Amino acid sequence: MERWTLPVKIGGLGMLFMLSWKLEPERRNEAIARFLETGGKPPDGVTLLGRWFAVAQQTGVAILEANDPVLIQQWALEWNDLMRLDVSPVLTDEQVGPIMAAALRR
To answer: What pTM, to 2 d.p., does this model score?
Structure first.
């Protein structure tokens, strides 16, 4: 059996979050303009590890790292007037492995 170690930190800040969004069709152009103006940059204290867009569906997802979930919520508040946002804490394979291994031992 493979041995797992915790905690695993990707960039060193702490917790990982998945932010997914769906544009409101009537707000699309406004969202595009805001993104082009701001670059969609997260606040200080949040590291954007990657962001992907499904343009035809007007959806996307970003993986973020932060040590304070309040910063993630503050950033979401800057965008939720234009789109529906969902934020979830997420784990890496290395982090979830011990949890799964423990579940099998029960």
So the answer is: 0.81
